[in-house]
Amino acid sequence: MKITFKLVALDIDGTLLNKERRLTPETKEAIRRVRERGTEVTLCTGRMFRAALPYAEELELELPLIAYNGGLVMQAETKEILYRRSLPGIYAKQIVRAAREKRFAINYYYEDRLLVEEINEANRLYAEWSKVPLEQVEDLVELPYEPTKILVMGNPEELDVFWAEHRELLGEEVYITKSWSSFLEFLHPEATKGKGLAALARHLGIERGEVMCMGDSFNDLEMFAYAGLAIAMGNADEAVKKAADYITGTNEENGVAQALEKFILRQ
Fold first, then answer.
1. Are 21 and 13 in contact (CB under 8 A)?
2. How high is the pLDDT of residue 1?
3. Rounded CA gap, 136 and 116, in Å?
């Protein structure tokens, strides 16, 4: 039976963008043609909302964006929030203290601001990459906020150990995932790409079987589990590929455009 996809959710880094972090003409044209045919497109990313917005504007997307791995689903123009989940302060303080002891770089996100205690090389490179300014504060533990997300940056092997320790320590109270090998993310347990995508689909009146998604990393797995068709990039981790329904080309091969052509434009 032919499936008509009404919504496509695209991860940004390692998926939508090439290694120069740019949208290729082929990808932009495929997305334009898909939208012209009546299929909605949104971005579903671990990035901050403000760091995802320039790409949505370049693609002229009009739907709410799914940011912070699903921690925030918001419409850009009106700032209407469809879905938001914040990390409880008790866990945020615990994570910050533990990350400090390991000398990991820490990003603390609140109200689409990027807060740090110190500006080291990892924080600086992240700000340069995301094009979001760092705001330095004296003590993250003392902030009276519930952050949208905490990102811990460091050596991949050391982060894996930290991940395992905190998965055992925090259980299901905190969602922990990786967006890159050197990025370990801590969020509310309902701040996942799957939950955020489900909230948007409900808002649009779209069934999960009518949703296609594409991604390349571990934080895409919950989105894969929700969508009717999950597509992994050719550059994805092997575990991510195994969770997908189909594997397209890499982000250097216009894999997004290839998949849109195969599953929507040729139908």
1. yes
2. 47
3. 5
Q: Strand order of the sheet with strand 211-215?
A: 40-43, 7-10, 211-215, 229-232, 246-247
Identity of residue 133: P
Closest-CA residue to 74 (of 95, 119, 101, 44): 44
By the 8 A CB rule, do 49 and 111 touch?
no
Whether residue 2 is predicted with pLDDT greater than 70 in this model: the reply is no
Cα–Cα distance, 84 to 199 (Å, whole number): 10
Class of domain 7-84+191-265: alpha beta
- The full set of domain ranges for the chain reads 7-84+191-265, 89-187
Give me 178's structure tokens. Answer: 């990786």
Q: In CATH terms, is domain 89-187 a member of 3.30.1240.10?
A: yes
The structure tokens listed for 214 are 């594409």
Rounded average pLDDT over 107-121:
96
